[in-house]
Every structure is written in C-alpha cells, then in structure tokens.
Known about the structure:
- This protein is mostly beta strands and 47 residues long.
- The chain has one domain (11-46).
- The chain contains no helices and 2 strands.
- It has a two-stranded antiparallel sheet.
Amino acid sequence: xxxxxxxxxxxxxxxxxxxxxxxxxxxxxxxxxxxxxxxxxxxxxxx
Length: 47
C-alpha cells in the first residue's frame, strides 16, 4: 500500500522481510548492497 508522507516526516525506512517467486529460491544470506547505502535488507530514504 502506498500513502503520502506527512510534512513532518524527514525519512522513511523500507525493509524486506521475505520474498517469493515461483521457480526461484531466495537466499537471504546473499543480501548485499554494492553502493553501500543500505544493509541489503533495509534502506532509509530521506526527504
């Protein structure tokens, strides 16, 4: 669900708890972030 940010919100954090896709296997240990702006599982986005 998408909703607008209130004016008083400076940042939001998006987190992936799980992911599934038919015919694929998800290995959470393989999470990484090549550009270094997250931990591979969550990212904080500033206004």
